[in-house]
Amino acid sequence: MRVILFTGKGGVGKTTTAAATAVHAARAGVKTLVMSTDAAHSLGDALGVGLGGASSGAPVEVEPGLSALQISPPHLLGESWRVVQDYLLSVLDTVGIDPVVAEELTRLPGAEEIAALLELRSQVESGPWDLVVVDCAPTAETLRLLALPEALAWHLERLLPAQRGLIRTLRPAAAAAAGVPLPDVAVVEAVTGWQRQMRDVHRILTGDQTSVRLVLTPERVVIAESRRTWTSLSLYGFVVDAVVVNRVFPDAAAEAGPHTPDAWRASWNAAQQEGLVEVRESFAGLPVVVTPYLPSEPIGADALADLAAAQEGGADVLSPVTHRGLTVEQTDEGFVMTLPLPLAHAADLGLQRRDDELVVTVGEHRRVLTLPAALQRCVVEGASVRDGLLRVRFVPDEEVWPRG
C-alpha cells in the first residue's frame, strides 16, 4: 500500500491538490482512500460530497474506487482515554480541584491529531486500499502531527517502567505516602496500548511506502516557508518526493496574440516565472508539478479530474519511495551517522549528546534520537552539514570500548 501526505501553507490549495490526486488515481484503477487531518474539514467541500454524516468514522464512497473519510475523534479515542481521564479526575479530586475545572484540565490535548494518526494506522493495516491520500493541516500543525508518534512513544516508554514497578510492589505504601491514588492496571494498559500504536504509526510514516508532497504557490513568502518545511520534515525522518506548484496564471502575452497583453496579468506572469525558477533551484532533485489556475473553482470529482489532467510534470502515486532517512556506517576510525537535512545551514543547527540520545535541533524544531547500541559506546568527535546532509562522526569511548 502507498501513502501520500499533502501539506503546505494555509490557502495554497493543498486540499484541492490531495483530492485531485485521489480522483485521478481512482479513475486510473487504483483503489483509493482520501482522508483529512485538517480541522477545517474542507475535503468534503472539495469533493462535493457530505462527509459529516459519517458519525461512525466509516469511509464514504465518492465514486467507484474512491472513498473519503472525515475523522471522528470521540469515536476513535473512546474508552481508552476515558479510563485515563477517570484516574486523573480522581487525583484532582483528592487535592481539592473543582470537578468542572478538573473535567476541563483532563481533556486530551491534541485529541484530533491523535485520532487522525490512529485512523491512518487502521486504514493502512486493515483497509482494502492500494493508495491512501492524506490531506494534512497547514505546515506548522502538520509538523507537530508527524513528530507526535515518536515523541509520545518516547515519553510513554519512560513513564511505563516506573508505573509498572509502583503498581507491582509499592501501590499501598506509595499511595498512602503520596496522598493520591496510583493508576491501576487498566490505566497502565491503556497507556501501553497507545505506546505500541504510536510506534506502529511512526513505522508507517517513515517507511518505504510513505512520502510527503509539498504544495505551494510561486510566491516568495510561500516558497520560503516550504523550504523550511522540507528541512524540518527531513529532520523527523520523512521523505518529500515531489513539489506541487499551484495557481500558475496562463501566459497573458500568448493569449493576447497580436494585441497588447493585460499589464496586471503580465506582471503576475513575470513574478510567477521568477518564483518557478526559485522553486526548481530550491528543490533541485525533486519532481516539480505545475498546476494552472483554472477559469473556475474545481468542485466535484469531474472538475478535480480535469485539474489533475491539466498538471504539467508528474509524480507516480504508486512508485516506491527511495528512503533517504537516517543511516549509520562504520569507518576505520569509528562510525558516521548521516541524516538528510536539505537546505539546512550549520548556523541553524544544534547538537547535544544526552546519555544514550542525541538531540538534534534545527531552528525551532527538535528531534531526540535514541542512538543504536554501537553509538551509545562512542563519543561525538565532530559534525558537519554539507550537500543537504548532516554527518555526525563517532569514535569509540576508550573507557567502555577499548580499541583493538
TrEMBL record:
Protein name in UniProt: ArsA family ATPase
InterPro entries xref list: ArsA/GET3_ATPase-like, ArsA_HSP20-like, ATPase_ArsA/GET3, HSP20-like_chaperone, P-loop_NTPase
GO molecular function ontology, one term from the record: ATP hydrolysis activity
CDD domains, alphabetized: ACD_sHsps_p23-like (cd00298), ArsA (cd02035)
Limits of the ArsA HSP20-like domain: 332-394
Similarity comment: family membership: Belongs to the arsA ATPase family.
Entries under Gene3D superfamilies matching the protein: 2.60.40.790, P-loop containing nucleotide triphosphate hydrolases (3.40.50.300)
Native species: Pedococcus bigeumensis
Signal peptide feature range: none
Domain ArsA/GET3 Anion-transporting ATPase-like: 1-309
Highest classification ranks of the organism: Bacteria, Bacillati, Actinomycetota, Actinomycetes, Micrococcales
Record Pfam families: ArsA_ATPase, ArsA_HSP20
